[in-house]
Amino acid sequence: MTGFVEKPEPAQVPGLVHLHTGKVRDLYRNEDGDLVMVATDRLSAFDWVLPTLIPDKGRVLTRLSLWWFEQLEDLLPNHVLSTDVPAGAPADWAGRTMICRSLRMLPVECVARGYLAGSGLAEYQESRTVCGLALPDGLENGSELPGSLFTPATKAAVGEHDENVDYEEVARRLGPETAAALRQSTLAAYDRARDIARERGIILADTKFEFGWDDNRTENGEPVLTLADEVLTPDSSRFWPADQWQPGRSQPSFDKQYVRDWLVSAESGWDRTSEQPPPALPEAVVEATRTRYIEAYERLTGVPWS
């Protein structure tokens, strides 16, 4: 098991109780019982949270998530209440804070795929399946799939791998009705986002969503399934420039693949199979990664970064 190279001390803010330090976000609860999510500039790769920060990354993730929540709000309710910074919080929380409803979170990473990459590609190469779903022969790295797939995974702790599971396993763990609702909601959100991104010259290859039950909002006496966490950011999605898409190779991307590629290069000097933590990122890699995150934001939203 791996984790943080250097685990940070959480900020102490009057009226807030620190709940969790995640790979990227710090989570607090306020006196009203709402969650306060703060997106930091941390970056994770290969199950390590790296020692080097990417300037503005947390603000990009927050702004992009808020923009996507608006694009999806007619499909799915979300957990955002406000973006007000709590009194007494550090100044750098501005632009990276969301006050959110407290939900009963479901322990499943709801992954949607429209293209073959990552763990899906690895499974396909072994068995011609992804999460137990049969796929045709002849697909390559980066191939478009015949249709959008719901390929869930179990949620892992920091430093551990999420594990791909099949739909039947989700139904066994959560019940058939909840599993069906997760699949329908995940694919509806992915298909909407894929079409929006495509109009802006970006391929949304895959993404993951998290959902929870909102006991304070009900329909027909039942709690409402609600979209949570972050959505459709370069941290949770693979974004590829459409004009450079070419199946049969790794695709140029707007996410942290650039960092992964550097870490496994001879230049980094790091052995991924060892127990040693990865090294600090060089300034050029930091700036190139920041540029990719900002370009994804600008191309998707049409709004200049500032």
Please work out how many helical segments DSSP would assign: 6
Mean pLDDT, as a whole number? 94
Rounded to the nearest angstrom, the radius of gyration is 19 Å
User: What would you call the shape?
Assistant: globular
- H/E element sequence: EEEEEHEEEEHEEEEEHHEEEHH
Biggest β-sheet strands, sense, barrel: 8 strands, antiparallel
Euclidean distance between termini CA atoms? 38 Å
Number of strands: 17
Poorly predicted ranges (pLDDT <50, ≥5 residues)? none
Would you write up a description of this structure?
The chain is α+β, with helices and mostly antiparallel strands. 27% of the residues lie in helices and 26% in strands. It contains six helices and 17 strands. α3 packs across α4 (176-199). The model has no long low-confidence stretch (mean pLDDT 94).
For this entry, give a set of tags.
single chain; 306 residues; alpha+beta; 8-stranded antiparallel beta sheet; 5-stranded antiparallel beta sheet; 6 helices; 17 strands; 27% helix; 26% strand
Brief overview, please?
The protein is built from six helices and 17 strands. With 306 residues, the protein is of the alpha+beta class. A hairpin with a 2-residue loop joins strand 4 (44-45) and strand 5.
